[in-house]
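Q: For a teaching session next week I want to show students how multiple molecules come together into a single three-dimensional assembly. I've collected the sequence lines for a complex. Could you give me the predicted structure tokens for the whole thing so I can convert them for display?
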Amino acid sequence: MSATKRRNENPNQPRVKRNTRAGQSESLIDLVKLHRRIASGSASRLLQTPASSLVTLFVVAVALLLPALLFGLSSNLASLLAGFQDSAQVTLYLQDSVSEADGQKVSDDLLTRRDIESGYYVSPSQALDEFSASSGLEDLLIEMTANPLPGAIVLTPWDVSPAAVDELARELQELPQVDVVQVDSLWLQRLAAISNLVSAIGSVLAVIVILGLFFVVGNTIKLAIESRKAEILVIKLVGGSDMYAARPFLYTGLLYGLGGGILATLLQIIVLATFNSNLEVLTQLYESDFQLRGFGLMSSLLIIVAGAAIGWMAALMASLRHIRAINP
Amino acid sequence: MIKFDNVSKRYADGQEALSDISFEVSRGEFAFITGHSGAGKSTLLKLILAMETPSSGQLIANGVNLNRVSATQIARHRRQIGTVFQDHQLLHDRSVYDNVALPLEICGYPPSDAARRVRAALDKVGLLKKEKSFPEALSGGEQQRVGIARAVVNRPSIILADEPTGNLDPGLSAEVMKVFQQFQSVGVCLLVASHDAALIERFNCRTIVLEGGKLLADQKPRPLA
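A: Of course. Below is the structure for the complete assembly, covering every listed component.
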């Protein structure tokens, strides 16, 4: 017991302040070391109860995955639409009374218009040939005495925005030779509306999921605090603030969010692979090479960062509330 | 340093643990608080540690008015006080070293600085060789001494001790009291609750006697012959 007397003659000497630059960087390293120790302590506690930790991790991952998939679906639809929009077509079906020569003339006149990029005339006989070739009803058509199909002009407008196409269609309807105007872009508009709806559902779901995650992570943290009540009590007795006592739990929340985010990006790869193998059959039928795209690096990082931030904040709210309630 | 001014403490069940207590302990003073169990010794220490608030009267410790304190103030106040608890209050999943280092970690001491202080404190209580052990592997007396090392490691301005020698043999009790006296000599204010009459007799210090929550006597140390 005498060994310390030499070193420690005045046990109440004031603490040496470190103001030098070296001292500051040293204390920063110390701080990093301290936090690394707290974080690894929290991680090893999670590993002590692997089953329940894994369940929580999966809940967080699935919760993050659902809105992320919807946003992904919506962005895939948007890119699909962008590819189709260039091919918006307006088809004019001509009156039966219009002869082939007149039809060709109307078509040539229309092509001089500034708002039309290209177009071609389909005579009734050409239409019949195409129809019989593609429908396989040649035998039936041979029986017919007259050609039931009208002549048509297929136009591609310069401006493919829905409003401009509608305006063009209304003008062309006024032409005396024209019977019916059909705009091919209507289904595109519907698809665009569906895509917007999917995105809106994704937003609402994201809000619900964030609230749900706060509850799930908060409840997990609450149970962890309950099981370490004695320890928190001791920390408070020797002067630890609520924030000090909360630190390990903040790391627990952060780890749940981070792990859940990483798991969610891994799960989406599996989900998309499953979708794509089914989609391949469909796209082959449509002679398209369309494929669902994954989240990409930035979106994946966003999910992971968002998960970590939600986990940390949920832990902060839960731990401060429950630690405040523990009093010696 | 510590000033009780007509302090009473009534618990929610109506039991009056302390009634109308007034005394003052100044810097560098060493006082025993004695009395039978249930006399109010523990309640008195709990009031100073802000674990309880006075029902009436005024209590000031270390310049802090303990009648009205926020959670942040309580934490800061407790960092200035080293407390030896009767039931030790050690963390069982941390080593002896980490238990003693806890107050320093809370105050944000650099680890190298903390290591020096922790070893010095463990040396004072004769447990330097046990720093890697866990509290459960220690005897009651050893656990008590870990608690004492933790109480003094932060060089507090007030040391409170609730039966600090309860589990110690007379030799170790004397050693512990000597450690306390070292702190007294550098201006620390010490309050030791004890019912060990022999110990109180041997260490000729101011003695505050409680009985049934009332201050029965406040004996000054006998003049040295």
